[in-house]
Design a protein that fits this description.
Layout (H helix, E strand, L loop, with lengths): L5 H5 L1 H25 L5 E7 L6 H16 L3 E3 L5 E10 L8 E11 L4 E12 L3 H16 L2
Parallel strand pairs: 1-2, 1-3
Antiparallel strand pairs: 3-4, 4-5
């Protein structure tokens, strides 16, 4: 007995192509799961040491915290073992405190009973670029965690 559409019963070229694509998708999905299986979420505390509450300083600290909230592998926390980012800021020009600031960032690791120094940096930023500077600080934080 002969079937009219024997190509669909034996699979044909379309079936081979579909199975090949399905096989590749399964391999890619299993590989991507193994890449992300070890992702840890690191607790971060941001401490502000600025004593003069000017708008640019507050916006800068807020921007660092917001970029940490946006990061997949970081979360804000103020207890337990954590990485501490201590940021001190000072107006670059006291006559125009909201134009630019000098900042110092110190990265520390704490386990409640002990705190250890990891790294530090200094720089300055202005009202037009503080958001980019805060992204750089969070990127540096991620780099420190992955050392």
């Amino acid at each position: 007995m002969q079937f009219k559409n024997s190509r669909t019963l034996t699979g044909g070229k379309n079936m081979k192509k579909t199975l090949t694509i399905l096989f590749l998708v399964i391999i890619l999905l299993s590989f991507s799961k193994s890449l992300y299986a070890n992702n840890e979420v690191y607790p971060i505390e941001v401490i502000s040491g600025n004593y003069e509450k000017v708008i640019l300083e507050e916006n800068f600290i807020y921007s660092v915290k917001e970029n940490i909230r946006k990061a997949i592998n970081l979360k804000l926390s103020n207890s337990g073992p954590r990485l501490i980012i201590k940021i001190d800021t000072y107006p670059k020009d006291p006559d125009y405190p909201n134009d630019s600031i000098i900042y110092s960032v110190i990265w520390l690791v704490s386990n409640e009973s002990n705190t250890f120094y990891l790294e530090n940096t200094i720089g300055y930023t202005g009202k037009l670029v503080y958001e980019n500077t805060s992204k750089n600080i969070v990127a540096k934080t991620d780099q420190i965690l992955n050392q």
